[in-house]
Specification:
Helices cover 60% and strands 12% of the residues. The protein has helices at residues 3-22, 28-34, 42-55, 58-68, 74-95, 101-112, 124-135, 145-162, 176-183, 185-202, 226-243, 268-284, and strands at 143-144, 165-173, 208-211, 216-222, 253-261, 290-292. It has a six-stranded mixed beta sheet with strand order 1-3-4-2-5-6, sandwiched between helices. A hairpin with a 4-residue loop joins strand 3 and strand 4 (216-222). The protein is flat, with a radius of gyration of 21 Å. The chain starts with a helix and ends with a strand.
Length: 294
């Protein structure tokens, strides 16, 4: 498909999704993104920008309808959304964890404000499905950063208590901004999804892979030390380079690796910092290479 046709297809999809949301079938992925529980991909960001311009305050009514199946006037819905956001922060402080926008919304409307005596409950199967949506990146299907950070802390705590090995791999697509500027964001999304696919192919089922940022990915290798972590990172780098070798994109990645063993306690923040420092060195040394913390 030509780049022009791809952009036309994306534009058509945006219009279709905009119409769907405007007719009160707000995509719950969008609600979760607007609540800060997942990142927006390029296509979704275009949709949201368009909706904000066209729907105005009605967008808040759409979001509440998606969460509760109840209709609120637009102006009231905007005020309620602000109150829900504040209530969610209060719950975070009291519980020591983020309850998420779905729980905060239902608790606020039924217990705090009394606006609704009974909110339409979401079926258990749908709730499980929405939980999966909340922890996974909408574009690549990998888990999102917040969930990855929680899993990293859990694995480090387990490592510090019981021993073992752990390797953290951070990779960044080289010159991704230039790729987007040259081919467009639709093509950039294609590259992101293919890189994620390769990561999934290379990682074991026990490994934890995530989209860590815009064009940055992370893989946590459980039970893996420096040697095996380096081998994995180099194999991943080569697989990505080979996949795009005969394409217009010529995509490569820079990779930083940090490793740890159970008798060397470290915080998740410092562990990420070590891997990120190696990623920076990889970029400094010409990109498309692997650097490992000594």
């Amino acid at each position: 498909m030509s780049h022009l046709m791809q952009h036309i297809a994306v534009a058509d999809n945006v219009d279709d999704l905009t119409d769907k949301i405007a007719s009160r079938e707000m995509d719950l992925r969008m609600v979760l993104a607007l609540a800060g529980e997942r990142d927006l991909n390029a296509r979704e960001q275009v949709v949201i920008d368009k909706l904000k311009e066209e729907r105005g305050e009605s967008l808040f009514s759409d979001m509440l309808y998606a969460l509760t199946h109840k209709t609120f006037p637009s102006r009231q819905a905007r005020t309620i959304w602000g109150d829900i956001t504040s209530h969610r922060k209060d719950m975070l402080e009291q519980l020591g964890r983020d309850p998420g926008v779905m729980v905060a919304t239902h608790d606020y409307l039924t217990n705090r404000s009394g606006l609704l005596k009974q909110v339409s409950l979401i079926e258990e199967s749908k709730l499980a499905s929405l939980a999966e949506v909340a922890i996974h990146d909408g574009l690549t299907g990998l888990i999102e950063k917040r969930t990855f950070s929680r899993r990293l802390k859990e694995e480090l705590e387990r490592l510090n208590r019981y021993g073992g090995k752990l390797a953290l791999v951070l990779l960044d697509i080289d010159h991704f901004k230039k790729l987007n500027d040259t081919f467009g964001h639709a093509d950039g999304d294609i590259v992101l999804t293919q890189v994620a696919e390769i990561i999934g192919e290379q990682a074991r089922t026990t490994d934890i892979a995530a989209r860590y940022g815009g064009e940055e990915f992370a893989v946590l290798l459980v039970g893996v030390g420096e040697k095996s972590g380096t081998i994995f990172a180099e194999r991943l780098r080569q697989a990505i380079e080979q996949r795009f070798l005969d394409t217009d994109y010529k995509t490569t990645v820079s990779i930083g690796v940090a490793t740890n063993i159970g008798d060397n306690e470290i915080t998740a923040e410092d562990f990420v910092r070590q891997a990120d420092a190696q990623l920076y060195l990889a970029k400094e040394h010409g990109r498309n290479c692997v650097k490992v913390a000594a």
